[in-house]
Design brief:
By secondary structure, this protein is mainly alpha-helical. Helix 3 packs across helix 4, helix 4 crosses helix 5 and helix 8 packs across helix 9. The longest helix is centred in the middle third of the chain and has 29 residues. This is HAT C-terminal dimerisation domain-containing protein.
Length: 208
């Protein structure tokens, strides 16, 4: 917008160079799953921070899948029904009652599959509801703390709260570690090339 309203040629060129630099350096950020989920889990931004609506929907899908996986891992398996051997006085062929299944029943495989499918379906449905509830919730003002937001909603969205603690701890920049590398190059120089590994590590630690 600034570039479109500019009248000087130098200003237009500067804006074009800035746009090209941003696209080349930051163009793939929305495709990086960790950063996309961190953006989506920020209640100040959610899906409005995405420049590509398809990438926002993809991030929402990944968040739903992770939430469902977390739900399934937190679900305790139901206790198996204990089966007893049929009474010796009653023959399965002559009895009119329902036969009692033994532990090695052929139906056990089907029962296990149905139980797992039902758990998968329920977890996916519950995760979709929790994600939609969060997405449709009001946006947090930009100056507010998103961690406080999630702490207050830990009971309402418990699984998204766990994901928020996981993804919102991602450092926004790699500048601090880059500065440590630069400082290491200043400490280990030609005049101090005989420094041992442990001494260099202690010097960098004390400096930073």
């Amino acid at each position: 917008q600034k570039k479109g309203n500019a009248t000087q040629e130098s200003t237009v060129q500067l804006g074009s160079h800035l746009q090209e630099g941003l696209h080349s350096r930051c163009g793939g950020y929305e495709s990086f799953r960790a950063l996309a989920l961190a953006t989506l889990l920020d209640p100040r931004l959610k899906n409005m921070a995405f420049g590509n609506a398809a990438k926002a929907q993809e991030a929402e899908k990944h968040m739903t899948l992770e939430c469902a996986s977390l739900m399934r891992s937190n679900t305790n398996p139901e206790p198996e029904m204990s089966t007893s051997d049929p009474s010796p006085s009653t023959s399965p062929l002559t009895s009119t009652s329902k036969p009692v299944e033994t532990q090695d029943s052929l139906w056990e495989l089907f029962d296990t599959r149905i139980h797992q499918t039902q758990m998968l379906h329920n977890a996916t449905a519950d995760a979709t509801v929790e994600v939609k509830k969060y997405i449709n919730d009001a946006y947090l003002p930009r100056t507010h703390d998103p961690l406080t937001y999630w702490k207050e909603r830990a009971v309402i969205c418990p699984h998204l709260y766990v994901l928020a603690k996981k993804y919102l701890c991602i450092p926004a920049t790699s500048v601090p570690c880059e500065r440590i590398f630069s400082k290491a190059g200043e400490i280990i120089c030609k005049k101090r090339s005989r420094l041992s590994t442990s001494t260099a590590e202690k010097l960098i630690f004390l400096n930073k």
